[in-house]
Amino acid sequence: MRNTYFVDIDGTLIEHIDNFADITNCKVLKALPGARENTAKWHCEGHMIILTTARPESTRKLTEEQLSAAGVIYDMLIMGIGQGKRILINDHQSDKPFKAIAYNVIRNVDGIKHIP
Q1: CATH: 3.40.630.30, 3.20.20.70, 1.10.150.170, 3.40.50.1000. Which one for 4-78?
Q2: pLDDT tens digit string along 32-53?
Q3: Where are the domains of the chain?
């Protein structure tokens, strides 16, 4: 069955830098644990990978370059979603297991290495 992975970028896939001006001056940001390996694995298994970020749309080209340099594979990039909570709402069929799962990882530390 095809899964859909919604994954934040900064602090999850690539290094989060607090000063936004510094982010826009870097062509390469360090890939965090599992970023390359898991996105490649999910892609090869046929899953959908949707990246999300609070970065403004005006930084799309730079963000795409940083993700490419980090070796991150994805299908869609949603920008400008804000820095508030990300709330996933999904339906549930009574005869099947829950279809929505959420993971919180420690910024710039965990990456996605332990996400199945």
Answers
A1: 3.40.50.1000
A2: 999 999 999 999 999 999 999 9
A3: 4-78
Output the 3-class SS for 8-36. Answer: ECECCCECCCCCHHHHHCCCCCCECCCHH
Predicted local confidence at residue 25, as pLDDT: 84
- Cross-strand pairs, 48: 4
Residue (of 5, 12, 2) closest to 106 by Cα position: 12
Would you state the structure tokens that stand for residue 79, as one six-digit string?
A: 């920008």
Beta-bridge partner residues of 14: 10, 31
Element (H, E) at 44: helix 35-44
Digit-coded pLDDT (tens) for 90-105: 888 888 778 888 999 9
